[in-house]
Amino acid sequence: MHYYLSAGNQVLEERVGTSTNASQQYVWGLRYIDDLLLRDRDTNTDGTLDQRLYAIQDANWNLVAIADSAGSVVERYTYTAYGQAEFRNADFSKTDSGLGDVSNYGWTRLSAGMDLDLTTGLYYVRARWYNPALGVFDTRDPIAADPNLYRYCHNNPVIYVDPTGLWTSDTHRQLMKESFLAAFPDYAETIGDACAAYILDILTQSNLGQDNGSMPWSSANQPGQQNYRHYCRDQNQSPAQADTAYTQYLNTESNNFNTALAGGSS
Ligand SMILES: [Ca+2]
């Protein structure tokens, strides 16, 4: 299988072997990095995508059902707390005799929108593979953000998500807060609490989504891909360059916020 990815590390297209035709294509929403909207699929390998299915998620980005173009649910998914999926028909019966581990639509985007490898039973989570049967990652945390190097979502995947395989959503927010306070040690006097909260919100949302320049908070003079990368270095940046870009981003956003507050924006 060959995967073609967006700049935000989302699978846009899959091709099988040496085929030059897509076997599947995905369209993603802007709310979250694994906010899947729909999947087009070539069901008979004739080179033409002939099946469109729409993704329906719950509040923690778990795929709960897929629907056809008429809006009819064609398959449903239920999960253990740690994300092991059961495949169900539209009427909630299991898709096969008891095991419930077969999708009749080749559907693999499941718990938290993660991609399930049907052969191994592991979810692909970008930096790592996650084993929902054991409830842990199968390799150690490469950045040691969690002292328990195999733990997934603080052992609380009902609340948290970890689309990177590196840290959960709340850890990300804490990292953003610490880097933000380091960049603006006297932020309360200079830009105010409301502005600080505003910036923290957009930083957190940006990392969990994909700030590709089209997000409402992306400034025109700093396209999203270059503006800050959430204090995580772009591969082409030195630490000093990343630090500078981050500080510039915070300055831009705080100015935008203050301008908006003063009614100066059009
Ligand atoms: Ca086809």
How would the blueprint of this fold be written?
Layout: E1 2-5, E2 11-15, E3 24-28, E4 36-41, E5 51-57, E6 63-67, E7 73-79, E8 85-89, E9 115-117, E10 122-125, E11 128-131, E12 136-137, H1 169-183, H2 187-190, H3 193-208, H4 224-227, H5 239-261
Antiparallel strand pairs: 1-2, 2-3, 3-4, 4-5, 5-6, 6-7, 7-8, 9-10, 10-11, 11-12
Helix pairs in contact: 1-3, 3-5
Residues 42-44, 46, 48, 50 line the site of calcium ion.
How would you sum up this structure, described in words?
The protein is of the alpha+beta class and 266 residues long. It has 2 domains: 2-155, no CATH class; 169-261, no CATH class. Helices cover 23% and strands 21% of the residues. The protein has 5 helices and 12 strands. The protein has helices at residues 169-183, 187-190, 193-208, 224-227, 239-261, and strands at residues 2-5, 11-15, 24-28, 36-41, 51-57, 63-67, 73-79, 85-89, 115-117, 122-125, 128-131, 136-137. The strands form 2 sheets. The protein has an 8-stranded antiparallel sheet with strand order 1-2-3-4-5-6-7-8, with no helix packed on it. It has a 4-stranded antiparallel sheet with strand order 9-10-11-12, with no helix packed on it. Helix 1 packs across helix 3 (193-208). It is globular.
Fill in the keyword field for this structure:
single chain, 266 residues, alpha+beta, 2 domains, eight-stranded antiparallel β-sheet, four-stranded antiparallel β-sheet, 5 helices, 12 strands, 23% helix, binds calcium ion
